[in-house]
Amino acid sequence: MRSLPSTFTRARPEPERGGTPIPYPPRMSITYLEAIREAQARALAEDSRVFIYGQDVGSFGGAFKATKNLFQEFPGRVIDAPISEDAMVGAAIGATLEGMRPIIEMQFADFSTTGFNQIVNHAATMFWRTKIPCPVTIRLPCGGTEGGGPFHSQSLEAIYAHYPGLVVMTPATVEDAYSMLLEAVAIDDPVIFCEHKFLYYHLKAPKLPTEALPTGKARIAREGRDMTIVTYSAMLHEALAVASELAMEGIEVEVVDLRTIKPLDTDTVIASVARTGRLLCVGEAWPWGGVTAEVIARVASEAFGLLDAPPVRLNAKDTPVPYHPELWKTHRPTAQTILASARKLLDL
Amino acid sequence: MVESVIGRDSTPVPTTLRDDFISAYRWMVLARVLDDKLASLYRGGKIFGGVFLGRGQEALSVSVGVSLRKGDVFAPLIRDAAGRLAFGETILDSVRTYFGSSLGPMRGRDGNVHRGRPKEGLLAMISHLGAMISVVNGTLLARRFQGVKETVGAACIGDGATSTGSFHEALNQAAIEKLPLVLVVADNQYAYSTPSSRQFACASLVDKAQGYGVEGHSVDGTDLVACLRVLKDAVSRARAGQGPQLVVASLLRLCGHGEHDDAHYVDPKFKQSALGRDCMKVAEEHLLRQNWAGASVLETWRLDAVQKVDEAVARVQREPAPDPFKEDWYALSAKHLHEGQAGA
Question: Does the structure show a pLDDT above 90 at A12?
Fold first, then answer.
């Protein structure tokens, strides 16, 4: 573990008595969404180069309220954008050339595809072509929720990870949502920050973290010796539920939370497989050429001898994400299907 | 880094129409000579990839370059050798990028027209048309945040780029934010081989200005006098806070899309019309008619340009190619986050 970047370790200044009302009342617990909001508030407070640009992020506070009150607290620095993802990212790139550190909020990850060109061909190539870093953070509210349907549910981390020049983060916990977003803003390269919508309200932590693992380092979310489940984002919690279930039968599952999928912490994955000999890889995204495929390819090519059974992966079905909750539940991996895959792998 | 300095501030500031015109004309000559040299190097098999010329568009392009100030932002496109030179790009930057020299601004990583020095306001275009406009917007937004006043950003595009979503999004964005953007459209009748009739259906592209709520200007792109007047006016208006300016110039591309293209599809009627005039010749006739320069002076200027270009080409041809074994092959500036390095 290490401390958060130095610019972000100062405590938030306490508002003076009788001054502006405190927009962050002391809480007993904080949600994943609030952590994202707090991280942005802190980045804005501590770095004058930071601004937020996205649809409805201003006085409305964002479609999910991830920028609630930031417009009022940081006048002129939280800007409503027209429905123009290409121009949003293009403007962010231009701003980085002038020394700014923009945060772009895509209303849904799904809509980032209309800004795709500027992200993968412009932001991602800027440093390599010109030696000028491009510190833009692009927030992608991703993943499925009930009733989200084909165009409000996508998990697009793999297509961004495919392109050189991007860092792709997939925080699974409240603590990571906070610390990794601060890291994303501090990193000099473009960061695709995949925040999972299902975790926004469901996931809570007692308080915000003061230290974090380095970016690019995976975390052993649960230790075990019988098999390894490698996963990230919302699927971490499904995997942990499976590990708890199997623990009652005396089976110890090690769960690895990748945290960032690019760079991918192959060392931690292989070290875990060395302990367990069995690998199950779980992702909510589509299977073809995805994160699970990449993890398994690396383990198979770099650590084949450590495997006691063929590695297994579990992904969403290869169809668009369905609307009806009954279809959606079956479309993506859940604790139930992960458990079935895990049992099968353990029997091999 | 001497070559990289935007150099116009070292030349005398033109004070009269005559001086303005001559200064612009000489950049045009340099651009035309440079373009011709690159074309002949291409035919000699000396250039990797394509060569893209600004033949016929020099008057428009140079007018953008000379109307901007040091410190402004300029996003030229593929036919803007003249504007680039006038804005301060060196011949060496151009030749080095075409040759892929390791000493050039792109170090062999990118080539031909994809070059720039963004920290000096000269943006390095990507190939996706219309993409640079919103990037210019972003530089201007940043300057607004930083309290920089009286700054202008110019982006050059062709008629083809006006059909992109990027064009629409960016011009609309600039209008909403009332940014000091000057968007210059060279309507040169063809996007590669596609005629304007297959590109847009409005009477003139300048009609779009009204739709976006920005000021629009039309100009004869073959006429340097008109181009200088219109571009200076548009840049002044943007600088004075009048918001985005859309400038649409009518002209004809007097070459192929690139030097690989013989442009056989260009309708002869264009070549015989006023659109098909060569802006260089029009400018020369103006110089002679006004008695601003005689034929021998014009020839001296041309030879001066030839010498500068030949010197640059001779120098760059002796420069080292990039060495793949000296490349670091890192796409990220944060090297510790490069794949294979993380968690180490």
Answer: no
CA distance B196 to B190: 6
Please report the beta strands in B121-180, taking only residues with DSSP state E, as ranges in sequence order. Answer: 153-158
Both structure tokens of B317: 């041809």
Of the candidates B105, B165, B331, the beta carbon closest to that of A86 is on: B165
Q: For A80-103, what is the mean pLDDT?
A: 98
Interface test with A, best of B4, B103, B145 (most A CBs within 10 A): B145
- Residue A5 is predicted with a pLDDT of 52
- The model carries a pTM of 0.93
pLDDT band at B16 (very low <50, low <70, confident <90, very high): confident
Tell me the two tokens of residue A53: 């640009």
Q: Give the pairing of strands A2-3 and A211-212.
A: antiparallel
H/E segment holding residue A80: strand A78-80
Tell me which residue of B271, B189, B230 sits closest to B24, measured CA to CA: B230
**Three-class secondary structure assignment of A135-200:** CCEEEEEECCCCCCCCCCCCCCHHHHHCCCCCEEECCCCHHHHHHHHHHHHHCCCCEEEEEECCHH
pLDDT value for B15: 59
Q: For strand A219-222 and strand A253-257, is the pairing parallel, antiparallel, or unpaired?
A: antiparallel
Tokens of B114: 């994809």
Strand order of the β-sheet with A279-282 is A219-222, A253-257, A227-231, A279-282, A312-314
A61 and A231 in contact (C-beta within 8 Å)?
no
Among A154, A39, A96, A188, which residue's Cα sits nearest to residue B142? A96
The label of the residue with tokens 């300029």 reads B74
B83: amino acid identity, one letter: G
How many C-beta neighbours within 10 Å does residue B4 have? 16
Contact B145 A51 (CB under 8 A): yes
pLDDT score of A322: 97
Q: Is 80 exceeded by the pLDDT of residue B43?
A: yes
CA atoms in the 13 A half-sphere facing the CB of B204: 17
User: If you write DSSP's letter for every residue of B235-300 in order, what string do you get?
Assistant: HHHHHTT---EEEEEE----S-SSTT---TTS-HHHHHSGGG--HHHHHHHHHHHTTS--HHHHHH
C-beta of residue A211 within 8 angstroms of C-beta of residue A2: yes
Say how far apart CA A194 and CA A170 lie, in whole Å. 5
Examine the pLDDT at A6 and tell me if it is beyond 70.
Answer: no
E strand segments, chain B: 73-75, 153-158, 181-187, 190-191, 194-195, 215-220, 245-250
- Return the structure tokens found at A212: 């974090």
Distances (CA, A) of B67 to A40, B184, B335: 40, 12, 40
- Please report residues of A whose CB lies closer than 8 A to that of B134: 84, 86-91, 94, 118
User: What is the rounded distance in angstroms from the CA atom of residue B97 to the CA atom of residue B99?
Assistant: 5
CB contact under 8 A, B119 and A264: no
Indicate yes or no: CB of A82 within 8 angstroms of CB of B172: yes
A152 carries an active-site annotation: yes
**3-state class of A262 per DSSP?**
strand
Beta bridge partners of A52: A78, A103
Among B117, B128, B336, beta carbon nearest to A121: B128
